[in-house]
């Protein structure tokens, strides 16, 4: 029997081995930027901690499960596509507009509205207040 197997490829255990004559490049270690540590003044015992704003954690996305009408779903998809097509230059993936971004903008719009949320009792009332 010959030592060559599978059309001259050798044994499966030979794959992944490197020849001893090849020199391995030395790993390049990037120098970490130096960060100065800034200490905050001691907290005032009479002041209360500021409540965290919803916008402070913009980078963290959380999934939600919502039910919308088919018509709303189609509108979201069509509108997001239209916004993406408005760009003449390619847009990086992290800056492209998708339906979830439109929903997020709608939430921001609701938050910025002058609705007295403690007085709203149902969706129909909210639509009237928003003139929808």
TrEMBL record:
It comes from the Bacteria. This is Uncharacterized protein. It comes from Trichocoleus desertorum GB2-A4. Residues 1-62 are annotated as: Disordered.
